[in-house]
Hints:
alpha+beta, Arc Repressor Mutant, subunit A, 5-stranded antiparallel beta sheet, 25% strand
Amino acid sequence: MTKKKKAEEVIPDVIRRLSNNEAISTSDISKEYNVSESSFKERLKDVRETFYEHFFEPDKGTGKWVRTEPSFLEKMLLTPEETVVLTGILRNRKSFGEKLAPWVDIIVDNYVKRTKTSVFKQDVLEKIDDDLEIVFARLKYAIEEKRKIKFKNNDGYIVMYPYKIINLEYYWYILGYEDYSEYWIEIKKKPEMTNKVKTFTIANIRDLEILDDTYKYDFYKTEKELKNAMNAFFSVDDGSETIELLVVNWLEDYIKRAPYFSGWRKTDEYELIKDEKYDKDIKYIVYEIKSSNKYYQDVIPTILKYIPHIRVRNDEKLATQIFDEIKKFANAHNRRIEDIV
């Protein structure tokens, strides 16, 4: 005789089916999954009351469980597995004893809050309001289910294989493969502008739709390059080149602490550069960083931010590009470089 499954094992699948608009009866589930009817009904009721009270309910006419909110899982940061386990912990709070029982609710509540924190981590300049939180939740769902997404932003309609939510220079982006297809006539871009791994600003996403189609794509190269990403200008398709920077020695402690510089590699080399103002030599440490943008847009903003404490070492092309940016800034304010110097 086949051993019956525990109700908790099958509930995540059932919740996903409900979210996808499948009406399900307890007796059907009992037969399909070989699970006790009474146990399943009791456990599903517990999970529903704890996390899904407004999302599905029993239909009195058919005796089946039906959803009351379309695609409700797309709006939740917690996965069905997490909600089932957390409900089980809450249900067994008394087993921890009288003194520890109150801690169960606190710990579960903290886990739910930390789930949000893990998605909205890092200090950001953007405020995550209720609408944007739903966008995050839907993107997270699409990533976990490997579902294609379609959305509108400032550039028109985008079709994408979503891979990861990332934070670059204090702003949130969705990273993934932008797909070009003749099927989506709304896309006004040329084919050569798509079919690439790209980032899009999450705050600019509108009319987000999670498509029925799943995708398969190898993001190994993307993950490898991502550790060197400084801002949204990083590129996977263009390859990368190593750049040497001279960083003033007192800035080293900050670079060690800040996750922002995780892709920077300190070398054993250094240079002593004369400071004319104080008439003494200043020690500059040599760092190697990766640039994946042919116009150096992924590294120039950071270098400009810390000038003159960061200098370019033996790369005239990059130095010229930076100087051009400085001249553009000066011209925008009707100033000449020679007057400023």
